[in-house]
Structure formats: structure tokens, C-alpha cells
Amino acid sequence: MASMDGFILLILVMLPFTMPGETWFTLWGFVASWDGLWRALQIALKANAIVLALLTLVGSMEAITLGHALHRLKVPETLVQLLLFTVRYIDVLRDEYLRSRVAMKARGFRPSNSIHSYKLFGYLVGMMLIKAMERSERVLNAMKCRGFSGKWPHLDQMRFKPIDLLFGLTAFALIGLLLWVNLR
Amino acid sequence: MSEALISLRNIGFAYLGRTATLQALDLDLFPGERLCVSGPNGAGKSTLLHIMVGLLKPTTGTVEAFGQKRLGEKNFHDVRRRAGLVFQDPDDQLFCPTVQEDIAFGPLNIGKSKSETAAIVEQVLEHFGLMHLKERITHKLSGGEKRLVTLAAVMAMEPEVLLLDEPSNGLDEETTDRLVEILVSLPQSMILISHDAHFRAKIATRSLSLVDGHLEDFDPKCRHAKP
């Protein structure tokens, strides 16, 4: 949540100055408006509410279950595969990165604000990209060896159960209620 | 002698911008053989296995597998199913999120139904004593578990030949012993690449070494390494 708030902070700070409306205060000749302040608060609350809802619904789930669920919900195959490969290989890449960092440390490297440091980090990133690319080629080879020809097969074991229907209906009812309260 | 399962004739191969890795290489694998190949680092041992299943295209020579000359990508689809390649790094091979999906990947690709595949997964895991790993997430397995699961995933396609690229790499003694036990009990012919002389001695029915781009009869330098 903090990362998202950091992301939108700039927009929130700028809003009172860019929205026309009743004057709140002036800073170096720029006018901040009350309307802008309300709008900024609204955005901040909405964004945080969305992230909280997402965390409780999706965050408690294995990423892999999420991938399979998205596949069942007919999300494009490529996007689902991208998610699942990311889940599968992010740790492998992280380990590679950490191993390289330890190797650098073992030979006396201490990061500092110098050309030498930046150059070495450049090497590190470049090396990781090359390694990742080579790995992707080996993975494709391994897939080909097991009969892969472009279409990903699924061993699907998810079933739509009565409890899912109940959850769905309750959720829709609650959302409907909220809409009704808002629009009344 | 009965007819060879896989025959390589006069194979030559060079990686771009390097001198030839393989030169005038001949190899025959006969039914029932467990053929071990050793050789210095970078001698082209992995390259050899990749050529056999058509992942790399040799610059000269011919690949004959299961009684047919193989040329071009299409021709090799059938070879890849019948000759199961176990890769050097299990992380390359276990690309599916969970163990059961990884094992199911091959059978589903060769057109087995979901229920048939589920039965194959059960059977293979049972056979290797890995049933407890079925629902596990592949990147969280230990090195030994990863190795055994890659072997199970290849066996699920019911190959006639196994091609193993340094299967004992990075395994502890106990897991290595278990792997030896499994491999010796399998009816499949196999080609194994290994640097581990003890491992080779326990498994091989024939040994070759890859030197200067071609295969020679194995000539041990260490007294532990029986040919």
C-alpha cells in the first residue's frame, strides 16, 4: 500500500493547485483550491480502499491459484502464462542476483557513489539479462522435448461449487446495495 | 547384434565463431544398453544429446533414430517423445508451477485425456516414491527432489530411451544412491553423461569418452574408475 501511495503522492499534492475553485491558500503566487483538496482526498481514499480490497481477496491466495482462476475466467492465455512463468522464475533470478552480490562482496566490493560502482552494477544487470535470456532458451528446449508445439495444456482441477455461487451472489447484493445507497 | 535405437554417423558441429566442437562422430545405442559418456568440460557432451533430439542441427552427418533418418523439426517431434532428455539444470526443466502439472505437461501434449493423464501422474509418482510431492510448488523443492521429479516427468511420456545430462550433479550421497537404484531398475536403454566415476561404475554397461570431438573407448586414468 505504501508503494502505491508513494506513486500517487505527487498527483495528490499537485491537485489542489491545478483544480480551479474557491481559494484555500496561495503559495508563491499559485492558488490552491478547496475543490482540489476534496478531489485529492477522494482519490487517496478510493485508491487505498481498492488496494485493501485486493489484498484481502487476492493477497491471501497462492499466486498459482490466481493464475489458474484467471485462466478459468477466460483471461488471455499469454497473460496467464506470463504470470505463471514470473511466479516460477522470480526466485531463480533473485537467487542468481544474490549469488552475484555475494561474489562481489567476497572480492571486496562496497557500493559507493563512484563510476566504478555504477559500472559494476551495470555489468551485474547486463549479466542477469543475458543469463535470463539463455535460461528462457533452455526452458523452451525443455518444453519442446516434452511435446510442446505452441498450445499450453491445462490439468484443470477447479470446480464451480455452490459456495462460489453463494459468495458471488452475496458480493453482488452488497455492491448493489452500495450503489442504491449512493444513487438514491 | 540387434538394430541400433539411435545411430549417429559422421556428426560435425560448431557453435558460431568457435572451432568445431564435434567432428566425424559416430555413435550407436543398442537396446538394453546403459552407455556412459565422459569427457572434459566443454567437450560437447550436452551438445551431443541435444543433436540426438533435434534441438541443435549438426553441420554434417546424419541422425537415425528408431529406424528412420531424421531431418528437420517435424521429424524430431516423434523422437523427443520416444527419447526422453533429462536436462542438466532441473530449474530449466521444471517450468510448471506445481509438481503434478509438470508431470502432466508431457502426456497432455501427446494427446492423452485429462483422466488418463491424472492416472499417469499418480502411477509415476507412486513408482518413484514421490507421492508426497504431488501438490508441491516446483521452485520450493530441494535439489534432490527436483532431480527425481524431472526424471519422473520424462518417464511420464513412456520413452523408449533416456538421455541423461549429468543426472548426479549436486546430489548428496543418499540421493545419488537412490538415483542409481532407480536407473538400474528401469528397462529403458539410456545414455548418461557424467563426471562421477563411481556413479558411472555402478550404472554403465559400456563407457565412452568424448575427446577432440569424437568418441573413444573409455581409458581410465584413475584406478577407482573401472571401465
Task: Give an overview in words.
The complex is a heterodimer of chains A (184) and B (227). Chain A folds into 2 domains: 1-60; 64-145, no CATH class. Chain A is built from 6 helices and 2 strands; from the N terminus they run H-E-E-H-H-H-H-H. Chain A has helices at 2-18, 34-59, 63-72, 77-106, 115-145, 162-183, and strands spanning 23-27, 30-33. Chain A has a two-stranded antiparallel ribbon. Chain B has one domain (6-217): 3-Layer(aba) Sandwich (Rossmann fold). Chain B has a 6-stranded mixed beta sheet with strand order 6-7-8-3-9-10, sandwiched between helices. A 4-stranded antiparallel beta sheet of chain B has the order 2-1-4-5. In chain B, strand 4 (60-65) and strand 5 (68-70) form a beta hairpin. The chains are: A mainly alpha (184), B alpha/beta (227). Chain A binds chain B through residues 62, 64, 67, 84-85, 87-89, 91-92, 135, 138-139, 141-149, 153-156, and chain B through 50, 53, 55, 77, 80-81, 84-85, 87, 89, 91-93, 95-98, 100-101, 104-106, 108-110, 114, 117-118, 121, 137-139, 153-154, 157.
What's this entry about, in short?
By secondary structure, chain A is mainly alpha-helical. Chain A has six helices and two strands.
CATH class of chain B: Alpha Beta
Q: What's the SSE pattern of chain A? A: HEEHHHHH
* Spatial arrangement of strands, main beta sheet of chain B: 6-7-8-3-9-10
Report the biggest beta sheet of chain B as strand number plus sense, adding barrel if it closes: 6 strands, mixed
**Number of DSSP helical runs of chain B:** 8
